[in-house]
Amino acid sequence: MPLSPAVELTRRLVRENTVNPPGNESRCMDIVAPLLRELGFTIAEHRFADGRLNLVARLGRETDRPPLAFTGHVDTVPLGAAPWTRDPFAGEIDGDRLYGRGSTDMKSGVAAFMDACRLRRDRIASSCGVVLYITVAEETGCEGAIALAAEREFVGRAGALVVAEPTGNYPLVGHKGALWLRVTAEGVTAHGSMPEKGVNAVMKAARAVVRLGDFDFNVKRHEVLGAPTLNVGNFHGGLNVNSVPDRAEINLDIRTIPGQAHARVGESIAATLGDEVTVREVLGIEAIWTPPDDPWMSRVFAIMAPLIGETPVARGAPYFTDGGALMHALGGVPTVILGPGEPHLAHQTDEYCLVSRIDQAVEAYCQIIDDWCGG
Ligand SMILES: [Zn+2]
To answer: Which of the listed residues 64, 136, 166, 231 has the most CB atoms within 10 Å of its CB?
Structure first.
């Protein structure tokens, strides 16, 4: 059986090595941009770093109704230490499986919404239309989308957002936010035989981190996403055994729930740690959440039920996404996480996506476009 255009496009994108770092996302953007221009999209390029451009593509008429947005990233995580049994950059297909780094996370998702736009081109062009945010530097903490979201003129407006991250085409209504904090303690170095001449930064950091043991976020558990969490991810200090360490660093990974303002969480963590250390935010992606009874989300659920063979219920994604930056930049528009990749295979050795899921995602996105842009 011949492969569909969306599956062929997924293979083309997988064959481009966009492992991040360094990213090299332009290899994929150079495929994506001409295809979109051919369809009549206008493209704005937002520079994240040298040779690393977020792409914002728009098609449709200027109307009172805002366009429908899709988003996806084209970078991937590294291959990992374990050897692959398949070529990670060949786009090899075996049965219903399309193998390769980025097949699931998330070149298949980008290919699927691109192809839905091709199939619905005329409808999109003659209505309020769609906007596509195709991003770089997602796998290192949504850096590309965060930079993009800070620039109003690039973000523009949209009325609803589809984040095409891997969900096996199950529509997910939100995810926790991520707040990564770097805690540092400074000291004064001295010879290890004369510790009284120095100030030990490791001891300061240790006293601070122990206080987090009974930290309480003081918020009610979210009905779907659960409770916020805090993990001390690492603790570094000192260079050698016979010196007094003059610097120590702790990195905290906090996962927040809707309604928790990161600035407030950061202040309360800093107060708990005390004044022997300083705290700096290294990543902030707020939680996203759209109630399942939101009218648009209800319609997405209704579209997906026959396609996936079950009535969706409100569930969250275990990971965070660019949607955390974009949804808030768009004013909190309803947002669904819905894409063809297999969530358990993201970042794995021998990552693959199901070919049938890619075609199913195209069908789903076409129906979501029809619903938004008028049947
Ligand atoms: Zn991803």
So the answer is: 136
